[in-house]
Amino acid sequence: MARLTCVGIDWATAMISLRTLPTPAPGSPDLRTAGRLLWWLARQQAGILTLGVLWGIVWMGAQAAVPYALGAGIDAVTAEQPRAAAGWALAVLALGVGQAVAGILRHRMAVTNWIAAASRVQQLVARHAVALGADLTAQVATGEVVAVSSNDVERIGGAFDVSARFAGAVVSFLAVTAVLLNASPELGLVVVVGIPVTALAVGPLVRPLERRESDQRARFGEATELAADTVAGLRVLRGIGGEELFLDRFRAVSDEVRRASVRTARVRSLLDALQVALPGAFVVTVTWLGARLALAGEITPGELVAFYGYTAFLVLPLRTITEAAHKWTRARVAARHVLDLLTVQRTLDDRTTGADELPDGDLADAATGFVAPAGRLTALVCADTDEASRLVARLGRYVPGAVTLGGVPLDAVTTAAVRRTVVVQDKDPVLFAGTVADSLAVPGSGRVPASAALTAADADEIVEGLADGLATELPERARSLSGGQRQRLALARSLVVDPPVLVLDEPTSAVDAHTEARIGERLAQLRAGRTTVLVTTSPLLLERADVVALLDDGRVVASGTHRGLLRSQPRYRATVVREEDS
Fold this sequence. Notes:
This protein has two domains: 312 residues, ABC transporter type 1, transmembrane domain (ABC transporter transmembrane region fold); 214 residues, Rossmann fold (3-Layer(aba) Sandwich), CATH 3.40.50. It is built from 21 helices and 14 strands. A six-stranded mixed beta sheet has the order 8-11-12-5-13-14, sandwiched between helices. A four-stranded antiparallel beta sheet has the order 4-3-6-7, covered by helices on one side. A hairpin with a 2-residue loop joins strand 6 and strand 7. Helix 7 packs parallel to helix 11. The longest helix is centred in the middle third of the chain and has 53 residues. 37% of the residues are buried.
C-alpha cells in the first residue's frame, strides 16, 4: 500500500486501531505549550480523527436533512401528490437508517480517539517516569503523578471524543443556514444571527470555568498526595498513634477539594442551564415568527414545519459546541499538568558515549575522600543519614560527582557500563507486585543462585512461612510483608545480581539484632572478593567489615577497623554506640 503524506502527517501510520495499543513508540511530544501538546497528539492520530470527523458530519448531516424531507413531504400531501409524498417518506426512512449507521460508526471512532489519546499520554508519562528514575520521586509528588495518570489523561481523551461531534455540528449548522437563507431570508437571517449570539452568550463563562477547574485540579492533587503518603506510612502512623492527626489533615484537605468542586459546579451548572434555556427560547421565537409568515402566506405549511425542525435540530449543534468548549477547557488544564510532568529534567542524563567497560579497582569519591578498597567489605558510618545518602547517590552515578573506579571516572564511561558494574540498593527498596520468584528473577552474574542469596539475607524462613513458597503472589510494594521481611527479600535480590560493586544503604534497619548478626556473617562470606559498601551504624554489621570509614561534616575523618575506631574516635562512639564523652 502506498503511504500518503500530507502536511507532514504519515496517514498510513496515523490509522490506529485499538488492537495496536499501546503504540510501539509514543513519539516525541511538542512540549512548548499545552496547546501545542494537544495539537501534537491530534497529529499522531490524524487518520482516526479524520474518520471520526467524517462520520460525525454524516451523522449530524443526516439529522439536519430530515426536517427538509418532512417539510417537502407535507407540501406534497397538501398538493395531493401521493407519489411525491411516498418518495419523501422513503427519503425520511433512508435518512433515519443512514443516521443510525453513521451514529454507530461515529461513536466507535469517538471511543477509539478517546482511548488512543489517553493511551498515548499514559505511555508518555510512563516513559518519562522510567527515564527520570529516582529523580521522579525527588522532584514530583506521588499524588501528582497519580492524578496526571488518571484524572488528566481522562480529560485529554474527552477532548478528542467530542471533536467528531463538534465538526459535525459546525458543518451541519452552515448547511442548515444556507437552506434557511434560500427558503426565507427573513427567518434565515434570524437563525443565522440568533444561533451565534446564543452560542456566544456562554462565552464569558468559559474563562472563569477554566480558572476554577485549575484550582479544583490543584486541590485534588494535594489530596491525592496526602492520601498516598498516609497509606504508605500507615504502619508507622499506627505505631506512633498518629492516625487521628493525619485523619484530621485529610479531612481538611478533602474539604478544600469539596469547596473547589462546588465553586466549579456553580459555573458548570449555569453553563448547562444556559445550554437548555437559550436554545429553547430561540426555538420559541423562530416558531412564532414562522407561524406569522405561514399565516401571511409567505411560506408554505411544509416550510413552517421544516423551519421548526431546523430550529429544534440546531439546539443539538449549539449544545455540542458549548460541550466542546467545556471539554477543551478541561483538556487544556489537564495538558498543562501533563506538560509540567513531562518537562521535569533529570539531574544527570544517561551517557551513551565513552568507554563501555569499567576496570577492577578501588571505588573512590573525591568530594569526601571516601575509598572502598577493591574486593573488600567497606562500611560507612555517618550520623547524618541525608549526607550518607548523597554520597551513595554519587557512588551509583545518580547525581554528578567526582567518583572513580580503578582510577577511571564514572562520568567518562557509558551509563550502561556503570549500571552493570555498580548496583545501589536504597534504604527504602521497592518490591513489585508478583510472585516471590519474580522478585528474584533479575539479571545476575550466575555465581549466586537464589537459594544462596535467600540464605545470606536470612530470608529462607520468610519463603518457608508463605503459603505457596516462592510461588506466593505479593501485592503492590509487598505490603503483606513486614518492613524487615521486605528488606531481607530486597537484599536477597541484590545479592542475586552479584555486581562487581554493591552499595547497600541501611539494608538491615528494620530487622532484629539476632537476624542482623546472621546477615552480617553470611553477607561477608558471600561477597568475599567482591567490592561491597555498607552504609550502617549497626555494631553487628560493622564488626564484619574489613574497613570502616567515618564520615563527618562532608569528609572522611577517620578509617580503620570497628574496634580500633571505637577506642580512638569519640565521634565514632557517639554515632555507633550512642556514647557521649564528658
